[in-house]
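Hi C.,

You asked whether I'd gotten around to modeling the 317-residue construct. I have! Everything is below, sequence then structure, no commentary in between.
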Amino acid sequence: MTPKTTLEEDFVYQFAAPKEFGKGGKTVCFAARASGLYRSTNSGLTWQPAFASLNLQETLPTLAVTIPPNPEEDPSVFVGCNGGILRSSDSGQNWESTQLPSPPPVVSALVISPNFVQDGILFAGTLEDGVLRSTDRGRHWVTWNFGLLDLHILSLVISPGFDTDETIFAGTPSGIFRSTNGGRAWREVLLPGGFRAILSLAISPDFTREATLFAGTEKHGLLRTRDGGQTWKRVGKPVFTKPVNAILLDPGYPRRPGSLVLHGSALLASWDDGETWEPWREATLAGKDIAAVYAPKGFGPKKRILVGLLDGAVQRI
């Protein structure tokens, strides 16, 4: 568990770790926190500040972190901060600033191409400046906002078949926008009932075949589309009364239709594609306010999972 910091609320915003997280005990993983980026070299058992080489005089709030799908081939790490993006080429030991459009943005989300080792493409969502795109492994970034009517990006997801369909979705305070040409142009996705603040998005691992996407809203629960955003259904309507802050799908979805949702500061799980829901690991997490969760191998029994708390602590389950 991480040592607590002097911040009253040291949110854990996001985790990043290899897809093979959970095998062995020496996996390198990262936690983006209000007090900065933290790094673990033992699969989340203990954590150390990752920005030591920068010799910072103040904390650098880190809202987003991402790594390539196969870090053994490319040990790069990218973090979104209040004022820019930092890049590491050695698994978070040393850092360099990247070139961003001015003024310096607050980076709220980062997603990386599933084919990153070959194409070097990343996207960054910002809180006021829309979406940025890099095609040179994060060294330089350009703004791509044509058709993006809301520049306040709260969430981003990229299609697992991005190398062929070039599809990416952005969640904003006014709804969802979709690009089908690699982020060069955007079109609004029509949602039932009009505008919805979209706090979280989750895309099916088999999206290229069955086009399923989930959207977590601030006040209107959980939405699901089976046709890439053309039509939507509200899932678990009586259950979701608080903001849906994060959505995780089982890596075997839809064959294994499990989903895990951060509902307010508590976790709810469904094993039947959202038909029924139950508290997840209630005995283990009782009384704890949860801010982030990471479960790349699923969240059933015997799966290794990271849970980030509002005070900055990390619990490995």
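If it helps when you're writing up: Confidence is low (pLDDT under 50) at residues 1-8.

Thanks,
B.
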